[in-house]
TrEMBL record:
Keywords: Signal. This is Molybdopterin-dependent oxidoreductase. The lineage of its organism: Bacteria, Pseudomonadati, Pseudomonadota, Alphaproteobacteria, Hyphomicrobiales. PROSITE patterns: TAT. Residues 494-503 have a biased composition (Low complexity). It comes from the Bacteria. The keyword Signal applies. Coiled coil: none annotated. Residues 494-514 are annotated as: Disordered.
Amino acid sequence: MRASISRRAVLAGAGGLVVGFMLTPAIAAEPEPTAAPVAADDIAADQTGSPPHDAWLRIGPDGRATLFTGKVELGHGLLTALAQIAAEELDLPVDHVTVISGDTERVPNEGATTGSRSIETTGAALRQAGATLRALLVDRAAERLDVPADRLTVRDGVVTAPDGRSLAYAALAADAAPRSTAPRRADAPAVRPKPAAERRIVGTAVPRRDLPAKVTGAARFVQDIAPDGLLYGRVVRPPRYGAVLDTVDADAVKDLPRIVVLVRDGSFLGVLAEREEQAVQARAALRRATTWSGGTTLPAPDRLWEHLRTAPAQTHVIDQRGDDVASAPAGAVALTASYRKPYVAHAAIAPPAAVAVFDDGFLTVWTASQDVFALREALGAALHMPASDIRCIHAETGGSFGQDGADDAALDAALLARAVPGRPVRLQWERDETFAWSPFGPAMMVDLAGQVGRDGRIATWSHTVWSNTHAMRPGEADEPNLLAAWQLDGTAEAAPPRTAPATAGGGAERNAVPPYDLPRRRIVEHRVLDMPLRVSALRSLGAFANVFAGESFMDELARAAGADPLAFRLAHLSDVHARAVLEAAARRAGWPGRRGGNRPGLGIGFARYRDDGAHVAAVAEVAVDRRSGAVRVARVVIAVDAGTIVNPDGAAAQIEGGVIQATSWTLREAVRFDATGITSRSFADYPILTMPEVPSVDVVLIDRPEAPSRGVGEAALGPTAAAIANAVAAATGARIRELPLTPARVLGALAASPSQSTPEKRRRG
């Protein structure tokens, strides 16, 4: 990405030296010179769905820098990485950079922290802004020292002339007259970020600034925020989707101690108490004292795949190359197979929570939302109040992984706080409602068909995916898309489903296009409009299922061709970065490379995330107990090419987390439901991977410091699932095409005849 500055202003005053910058066309207000930069309300989002990259940097009177960013910390180390980038370009120690994030009154709107895009977009913008601010400081020093700017050096916030005279950033930042602007001279050279050879901070394992407090227990999550006068809230949910609240017996809580208020609006019912355990007791009592009517009937679980295939859908041809993919050369072997991924919960350790207070008609919300600006707009729409009267402040929580119930909890808290003006309210969900009412990652079905010619190469490839939308975040389709908003009197209906924009990597079709050199291919998406279960974004969106399916099918084609799975992939790849990660992972894992298949228990998977992100290859080693059907993933080797690695420890941690979560999804996780609603309402009936089951993860980072950075937070999930599935097939000789790979499914595959455990296969000519 080549950045260019479209607006540059240096403002001096009580706040020190400030630079604002934009890398895409937008409208921004001029910040006041005496205040921290505020540029949130009027930075327009790109209509394609890719937000403008805006941020502000300030050098304070002490010479330290403050970075204001709309991106937020989700436990992935992002704010540490952004501080490294700013420190690098400003030539400051990294601990001299303070980061303020996720506050709609203090930071610019940079869109959601999603899609593994933050380092790619905000990071790139920040590099250019830091370099520009440094150049402005050096220009100012050159004027004061009467030395050409190109003869000055900068180290740790001090600009030094060849004769030893120096000026610290503190003096330079405090030097300008109020409201002065200081554009660079017309003859000044173009500002470019540091070349890789000059970096001292980017590319090093700077310790994460958020971890010490988390390790010691001092960190304050949203569930820990407790202002003076705090009230505790709980919400009573309907017994099933679509049910309407008919009656509530308020006497059920009148004798409970310290109950403050019962809040009802339409089918929304909540309660506030002076103590948390009293709110919990009141919720339990109210659940027994309410009557509901109506509700949605869900499809039978054993008919889910039929429902996806036959329900009304919007069909899109995502990609088409070559002529008819159904025809093939004489002698080609044709295969077809269908792969399935169930509904998956976010299953964060901490239930959703939020804190809200109404004060003189102004609403402040502390929230774990991944997009505080979109949430602010959605809250305004749901509460029928101007968004300018709402402030959303990000607070961390114990797990995120996409759109869970964090945004919903914010509206719940606001509705309760509106009933008690001036008093803060902390609303927290219970575990059962978290599993039952948070959005899920959609169930997906993928049909694949391909033909291998006599030369051992793939002649045709067809990939067809059925899925609900993956994009129902607040504000999508101009609707709040918040749970309580659908329950209030006189409020909006649920928004119609839409697809995630291609500029954001797409939704159901993400990674549906194969990364291989295929002369004839056709990729089709059926976006199913009927959504029986509530769905939205889950980590990696459609990439997880598409890569699981596509890479499983690559192994099946390799077997049909009599080829080693690794060699088969390499034979269809000209992308040097793709080849590099495959070879690196195979080498570290000790891939045997024997023709005719790999050793039992070893499987491989590959993808370039979103087709434009990090290249990732995984090799999984598994053990399968043929008596119980249990699968144990012993080791995953994973090689990653993500361009410039800002923080190697942070990148490796994100990859490790992705491997662990993908292992859990692949072996354990599936939402259970019946005709009346969700039945998996706890970790007892929605099991996730336990600590003793976590595999050894060996991360190989391929650093390319001259290349743009690529996000890694979601890149490992699809390749890991495919590698595990392929390893199970290698270990057992049985191919399982439906996730999760439960013991029952493994035993069923082992008991099936060979014809039932191989794809439909026929030879042409």
